[in-house]
Amino acid sequence: MYRASDELENAEWLDTLETAADRLELGSDARSHARDVFLSTVPESERSKQARVASSLYVGALIAGDQRSQTAVADAVGVSRLAVQQHWKAQLEATGLEPPGW
Questions:
Q1: DSSP 34-82
Q2: Which of 48, 55, 59, 80 could share a disulfide with 43, CB 3.0–4.6 Å?
Q3: Quick one: how far is CA 97 from the chain centroid?
Q4: Closest CA to 84 of 97, 99, 98, 69
Q5: Would you write out the chain's pLDDT as a tens digit for each of its 102 residues?
């Protein structure tokens, strides 16, 4: 879980998340889940936060049933698809959720 101060400290990244969610036309459930996942798994390194924003959006969309491709999410945030692929399962598990069994 995260603290209210985490939202303040990461306001810029949450704005990035919302902008990308707009590009992806994600619903409010997907956005809410993505925010929770990001704030629950914020990395220490500023350099890693953009990739985590992307993978959080991917996870949020999966949980909400509003799926988008890894490529579409990566493009909306401005990272590589590999960045999403490398982080999404760990973020999903870190928040206590199970990855889909495709």
A1: HHHHHHHS--S-HHHHHHHHHHHHHHHHHHHT----HHHHHHHHTS-HH
A2: 48
A3: 14
A4: 69
A5: 678 888 999 999 999 999 999 999 999 999 999 999 999 999 889 999 999 999 999 999 999 998 899 999 999 999 999 999 999 999 988 888 766 665
What is the rounded distance in angstroms from the CA atom of residue 73 to the CA atom of residue 33? Answer: 15
Class of residue 3 by CB neighbours under 10 A (exposed 0-12, middle 13-18, buried 19+): exposed
> Structure pTM?
0.91
- Per-residue confidence (pLDDT) for residue 59, from 0 to 100: 96
Note the maximum CA span of the chain.
Answer: 37
Domains and CATH numbers, the chain: 4-94 (1.10.472.10)
Q: Compute how many other C-beta atoms are within 10 angstroms of the C-beta atom of residue 45.
A: 9
Lookup: tokens for 86: 């490398």
